[in-house]
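Exercise: predict the structure of this protein bound to nicotinamide-adenine-dinucleotide.
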Amino acid sequence: MIKKGGTYVVMGLLNTDSIAYATGKMIEELGGRVIYTAQNDRMKKIFFDRGCPDLAQAEKDAMCIKYCDVTVENEVRNLFRDLGEVDGVVHSIAYANPKTCLGHHIYTNSFDDIKQGFGISCASLATVSQFAQEHMPKGGSIVTLSFSSQVAFPYYNWMGVNKAALEALVRALAREYGREHVRVNAVSAGPLTTKAAKSIPHFAALTQTWKKISPLPWDPIKDKQEVAHAVVFLLGDYSRKITGQTLYVDGGASVVGGELLKHEKPIKSMPAKKRLIQKAAAELEKPIT
Ligand SMILES: NC(=O)c1ccc[n+]([C@@H]2O[C@H](COP(=O)([O-])OP(=O)(O)OC[C@H]3O[C@@H](n4cnc5c(N)ncnc54)[C@H](O)[C@@H]3O)[C@@H](O)[C@H]2O)c1
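Solution:
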């Protein structure tokens, strides 16, 4: 469980749709102290201050938000230096230019964009881990967010490559920092409606695909909470011998081959299931003729 009064740094807050927001709120509910990070003041003003009309001013004021652009090593170093002791970190950050790194083809016309995407979405986890672990004298846990990298989804192109690299980096960092009692894991989430997701071309089609391949029902809005649950599990003590892993929270979509057949699709509501069971029971009670 989350350590009551423990300090958790949740990086990648953009607005109330962000996985970072759902995760941070859950940590707070469980008694942890959360330091959120936003990329910079400009992004916070555009998306958080002005873009979250549903959020009460009192809640906004109560949130501790620091700035950290993960591509600037000094900003990451200073963030952790100023925080003192830390128990856990959530790295919920990704970016790739949608015009050159996502889309119809695996474009090769901007190597700078490919490098930028890799730097932000993958390599930054190493920078964050390096400076975070220095502030975890009793050990700690670092969790990043991935997306199905074992199969190729349309349009995801270089970001899919970044996620595969991120999961490899999770294993390498688990090996590096195990001696410091610091664990590093990833949660691989199914599609969730957030700003980053909306920049993936045809993201709506991806959520439709999930309806066809996920054995469990998958809700791209509500299931952010389920993803947050898994992040919290990996941050806390119940997972203390788990490191270097990618935990899939995707309704099971990653383990099926091909689309679900009609009879395999999730039952929409449990009352419907109850009716099916009652019907079967009634059939059994019928006298054999
Ligand atoms: N939404 C999904 O469907 C989904 C599914 C699986 C995994 N993920 C992953 O979850 C993570 C969080 O994304 P999200 O969906 O909550 O979207 P989001 O847009 O709310 O969050 C992405 C965050 O990355 C930040 N960021 C980008 N460049 C940065 C930089 N240089 N320095 C610091 N921060 C930077 C953005 O400011 C933003 O806060 C990402 O790694 C994403 O790939 C998302």
